[in-house]
Amino acid sequence: MKLREIKKEMSDYRAAGAEKLKEEVAGMKKEQFNLRFQQATGQLEKTSRMREVRRHIARAKTVLREKSPKTKV
Phi/psi of residue 43, each to 5°? Predict the structure, then answer.
């Protein structure tokens, strides 16, 4: 994925509401589960998709954390 595409994706995530992002993360987690299952059974053809999904989840969670109220760490 190119930097330009990543920046566009991040701006889309920032424009979306928190509920939509939570739904997006839930959907990506389901896809990640399905990919793991396919890998375990030897049916996974595009192994790079696992890495992409994992990074999409991380990006969405990062934006969710940015939107959450600031808490003292």
Answer: -100, -5
Give 56's pLDDT tier (boundaries 50, 70, 90): very high
- Closest by CA position to 50, among listed 34, 60, 30, 35: 35
pTM: 0.85
Alpha carbon 20 to chain centroid, angstroms: 12
What would the two tokens of residue 33 be? 């589960």
Pair of tokens at residue 53:
């999904």
Residue 48 vs residues 19, 28, 52, 53: alpha-carbon distances, Å: 28, 15, 6, 9
* Three-state SS at 10: helix
Give me the amino acid identity at 10: M
